[in-house]
Amino acid sequence: MDNTVLLGVWLAVGLTLFMYSFLYKDNVFFRFGEHVYLGISIGYIIVRVIFNNFINDLYKPLVEDRDYILIIPALMGLALYTRFFTRIAWVSRVIFAFIVGFGAGLGIPRTIAGGIFKQLEGVLMPLAAIKDGFFFNADGNFTLVNINSLIIIVGITSVLVYFFFSVEHKGVVKSVSRVGIYFVMIAFGASFGYTVMGRMSLLIGRCYDLIEFSSPKYYYASIVLLIMLILVFIIYEVVIKKGEVLKTNE
Amino acid sequence: MGIFFAVQYYIPHPVTDKMLTDLAVWFRIISAFALGLGIVSLFHVHFVKIKRRGPAWGFSIIIFVSLFGMLAAGIFCNGIEVSTEAGKLTIYGWLYQNIQVPLQSTMFSILAFYIASAAFKAFRAKTKEATLLLMAGLVVMFGRVPLGELIWESIGQFKIFGINLPPSLGDITGWIMKVPNMAAQGGISLGICLGSIAMALKIIFGIERSYLGGGKQ
Amino acid sequence: MSLSWQKIINLDRRIIYVLISLAVIIPLMKPLFIKVNITPEVQAVYDTIESLPPGSAVFLALDFDPAAKPELYPMAEALLRHAFRKDLKVIGMTFWVTGAGLGEKVFSDIAKECGKEYGKDYLYLGWKVGDYALVIGMGEEGISKTFPKDHYGNSTGDMAILQNVATLKDISYLIELAAGDTIGTWYYFGRLKYNFKMGGGCTGVIAAGWYNLLKIDWINGFLGGLRGAAEYETLINKKGTATGGMDAQSVTHMLIITLIVLSNIIFFVTRRNK
């Protein structure tokens, strides 16, 4: 096996165990890993922005294609940094207004067409499609489709009422909003179930790698490094900490 | 700007389409600069920490060392992670695959332990609403794993009035997800859509200015 | 009596951590490969890819980073395997900067396994700042104008794959693998205008919300979490990390269900005693 691959595996396993050591308690290994992660991530992002955006979108079109109009967005981009100088910070606000206004303008019609209309269509279409009996389909078999559509309409309406704070929740509004709460609770429960699945999957993924790297092929990287880390903790807890306690008692 | 591009959607024309495309390029360039703002702030915070020998300032040095190390590696490799000829990772790609990937994956996988511990210590059926939440959660957790389905299948099924009972676990969890869950998610997302339109209009008409920063100025 | 109940509730959290670790590690080391049933939403994605004629273009948006790797990476592997088996042309990119390298790895690994040629059968564009501006660019200006260079720094303009797939209008199916809310960007600025079919995959955390997207026809199917990935692996008949992880998933779920039920029993017993 290539030495760089082996070195990479040992490094990855070591850093993984550093992070997991936090489960025992906050410690210097975890903090080290946490800060390395922050530095490496930002370094990675800067490199990607330099090569993918500045060089490909700005430098090359400007220099090679002589697309001089791009000087304008470049200056606008630079102007964002005026926010660090109190006197001319207003310039950056103008640019922010440009970016946010552009996004807001693009967003409105699309949200209406793709969000609101689609949502309403999704609710009303199944009801409009009822041609046969409510409980039985064309073949005479029992069907839940229409009942489900009805439940969905009741659910969406009551949830909207629950989140509508412009009227006081009393009387009919209160009763409807209570139904809304029940729907929201079921949805949150379902989300919780899926969230557990998601979080466990992440752990499974890491353990999968750790188990793979504990094989002889990788010179038992996971096992060796785990034992080493445990030993360091034992030494710290038993020898060093105990010594410190004795010193203070004296 | 906002009004123009909101209207442009409904009245498409080659000229305005071209404007949209050109401004999209501008937006990409400005966004690239905007990304730097956050990085400058982070630099500032940690630089000041080191300068003043603030608490745990040594870790701020680690941030700078790893950041500049990655930056140097990336520039040295021209931003290439895998050399196409050899099919091998460059130093930049190597650092990404062996440091960034395991650290980030592990950081988020720790949440698995917390969610289990929190579920044991805090998830109680104290009210009707909490009971509903708990029941839905348990059914989804049980029904979305093969072992749960296997246990359920072992109960067997019988027919009453032409209907198979009990329904399969997949059908039960599917119903929860596609009927009550979807209804609530639909209501919430409809609310979000309406809220985001209201917010966009407030931004366009200058009523909402918090995104500009600077407090109450 | 109630004191001992209380002891159980006040259990050191690290004991729960050990139990969870064992519930993951043991099934991973001794997997049983319990059968994974296929849900209609996963089947729909499979059927769509299956129905595409060879040479059709599929766009794979890998909008995740290493934090969601265990869930979405196996999905990307399975979907790519399927698309390559069907001789589809696949173009990939990501909106998540720290996921750019993962996208590169999954494309190069699976393409190598399936004997596909870069630039002709598949293309990986990588990442770039821009969000919806990139979708507008790829739809209007063209893919090669928006991404003049790919992830490796090669010019995209003369690549064979882009001769027939110049813009997003030429895409037959867009698959969004999401760890966040990027699907809105693809829908509002892509599908709404160019009307390509859309399907996807997402992390477990956001899966419950995606059922609503099915209903309102944003997507025609999706793979939810590791379970969705395992189902897809079953459909393409190639066991991978997702299928291998499902036993561990089962055991951890059962453990958490037991913990919740136990803690609630204790809660009701102690409340009644009071």
Short characterization:
The complex is a heterotrimer of chains A (250), B (217) and C (274). Chain B is mostly helical and 217 residues long.
Report on this structure.
The complex is a heterotrimer of chains A (250), B (217) and C (274). The two termini of chain A are 55 Å apart. Chain A has 250 residues and is an all-alpha fold. Chain A has a domain at 130-213. The radius of gyration of chain A is 30 Å and the shape is extended. Helices cover 76% and strands 0% of the residues of chain A. With 217 residues, chain B is mainly alpha-helical. Chain B folds into three domains: 1-55; 56-120, no CATH class; 121-204, no CATH class. Chain B is extended, with a radius of gyration of 27 Å. The relative contact order of chain B is 0.04. The mean pLDDT of chain B is 89. Chain C is an alpha/beta fold and 274 residues long. Chain C is 56% helix and 12% strand. Chain C has helices spanning 2-9, 13-29, 40-51, 69-85, 100-114, 132-140, 143-146, 161-164, 183-194, 204-215, 225-235, 241-273, and strands spanning 57-63, 89-94, 122-127, 173-178, 197-202, 222-224. Chain C has a six-stranded parallel sheet, sandwiched between helices. Chain C is elongated. Chains in contact: A-B, A-C, B-C. The interface between B and C is large, with 62 and 68 residues.
How many β-strands of chain A, per DSSP?
0
Largest sheet data of chain C:
6 strands, parallel
Overall, the morphology of chain A is extended
Order of helices and strands of chain C: HHHEHEHEHHHEHEHEHH
Residues in helix, % of chain A: over 70%
Enumerate how many helices of chain A there are, as a single number.
7
Q: How far is it from the N-terminal to the C-terminal residue of chain A, by CA?
A: 55 Å
pLDDT < 50 stretches of chain A: none
- Our measurement of the CA-to-CA distance between the termini of chain C, rounded to an integer number of angstroms, reads 12 Å
